[in-house]
Design a protein that fits this description.
The protein is mainly alpha-helical and 180 residues long. The chain contains 10 helices and no strands. The model is unreliable at 1-5 (pLDDT under 50).
Length: 180
Amino acid sequence: MTVSTNVWQCKRCGSSERKAAGECKPCSRARNAAYYAANPEKVKAKQAAYYAANPEKVKAQKAAYRAANPEEKKAQNAAYYAANPDKVRAQTAAYRAANPDKVKAKNAAYRADKEKAKARKAAYYAANPEKMKARMAAYYAANSEKVNTRITGSRNRLKIRKSLARLFSFLDEMSKVTEK
């Protein structure tokens, strides 16, 4: 028995890509796009009806797609945030106001593991030493009276000086690590 190596090409576009039913994929895609452009309300109504009839199936398909394409979803989220920063901030604020217990629990869980928090902070400092030095310099410039008041207080003077010394030595160590 011989296997035929003939590949049927589309008469319209010349493609050999076929769907399972035998239709040419590029032509089918173009036909569907033209139909959508001509009848967007009809297509959206049909999609809404399908979703209403099969919500769990659609959610499962979307979740599977997001799991299979996390970078694409991350890029979509970043693009949406870049285009709508005020809207996203308003949605976040509304969620936080409506769900304070959930937010508090999530923040507590995030801060609960001290070692992970320390590692995250160290990684950020290591990755952004110049940014951190600039941030601290801006803080001290904007709050010089507050900082000086704290430093001149006899009780806190030593504690603050030690903290600052540790922080600056940490930043210097992190900048040395990143230079290597």
